[in-house]
Amino acid sequence: MSARPSVLVFGSVNVDLVMRVSALPISGETVLTDDYQPLPGGKGANQALAARRAGADSVFVGAVGDDAHGILALALLEQDGVDLSYTVKSNRNTGCAVVMVDEVGCNLIGVASGANQDIQSDQVADELIDQAGVVVLQQEIPIEQNLRLAQRAQHLNTPVLFNLAPATHVPNALLNHVDWLVVNEVEAAFLASSPQQEDITHIAEQLADSHHFNVVVTQGPGSVIAVVDAQILTFPAPAIQAVDTTGAGDTFVGYLAAGIAQGDTGTTHLERAVVAASRACIGLGAQTSIPFGDEVNLL
Fold first, then answer.
1. Within a domain: 28
2. Which of 42, 66, 162, 163 is the most exposed place for a label (fewest CB within 10 A)?
3. Prior bond of 166 cis (ω within 30°)
4. What distance in Å separates the CA atoms of residue 160 and residue 92, rounded to the nearest whole number?
5. What is the DSSP letter of 65?
6. b/e sequence 99-119, b meaning 16+ C-beta within 10 Å
7. Among this protein's residues, is 294 annotated catalytic?
8. CA 103, CA 243: separation in Å to the nearest integer?
9. C-alpha to C-alpha distances, 21 to 24, 104, 265, 278, nearest whole angstrom
10. Can you name the residues that pair with 19 across neighbouring β-strands?
């Protein structure tokens, strides 16, 4: 690790079993497809890889099983130079997700947490938090471990970026230690206890005012709305032909985290994250589709 601030991601790691289907199944329906691909995934691992490909030093802290899936789940992170020194092996199976992707890139996902349930905040030394430019958390791991790490990060004056995905109950004790909240429009409405049809800018402002953090709301192929230092910002997404949207949100988080850690000012880091997330939609797989920094300028 270099002396420059890193992105520290504390989170989930899975193997994704990705299936291309003609249409996503409805309740009670079975759909057939020719084959599937086992690919590395998990929100935390995806975000750590995205931060690394954005050009930041990246540390991933997680838990995998002592199984073949555990090797596959970490393969791309290891290949790209993400620091895995603080990732441990669990007696449980490596986390696994079944991902169905239809012809227009929409997806349906089910996740078995497996080893992700065994992640512990004390895997992270205070020195590691102190060296980080940002700590990244998400919701595929036990909430109490997120809370403990967020409390330590605030004590050490390291900013916390929290991706509330998937949308489940979050105690105010955790939100009180967050500096950046990244959500999609469904997650934003859930946290604000607002109808989804309510104006998303109003919801973002409400969240920022209530919790005193920066808020970023992604809207799929639409624009990104941000409230940063009480200023409302809008970033249109490039027009693309989506193949698979699975990794778009995590790519956005990783690129944004890289910008925060590297001390980017203004709106450059947000603009870059929007473009990177769009580019991630034109490939298959949550990690295999994450663009490298020099590719982001191509859209």
1. no
2. 66
3. yes
4. 28
5. E
6. bbbbeebebeeebebbbbebb
7. no
8. 7
9. 7, 10, 42, 22
10. 100
Q: Does residue 174 lie within any of the structural domains? A: yes
User: Does residue 132 contact residue 2 with C-beta atoms inside 8 Å?
Assistant: no
Where would I find the H helices in the chain? 43-53, 68-80, 126-131, 143-155, 172-175, 185-192, 200-211, 248-261, 268-280
What pLDDT tens digit does each residue of the chain (299 aa) get?
455 689 999 999 999 999 999 999 999 999 999 999 999 999 999 999 999 999 999 999 999 999 999 999 999 999 999 999 999 999 999 999 999 999 988 899 999 999 999 999 999 999 999 999 999 999 999 999 999 999 999 999 999 999 999 999 999 999 999 999 999 999 999 999 988 778 999 999 999 999 999 999 999 888 899 999 999 999 998 888 889 888 999 999 999 999 999 998 789 999 999 999 999 999 989 999 999 999 997 55
Catalytic residue, chosen from 16, 57, 83, 250, is 250
Residue 29 within any structural domain of the chain: no
> What is the span of the domain harbouring residue 129?
6-23+35-298
Looking up residue 56, the CATH number of its domain turns out to be 3.40.1190.20
Residue 196 lies in a domain: yes
Q: Domain count for the chain, please give it.
A: 1
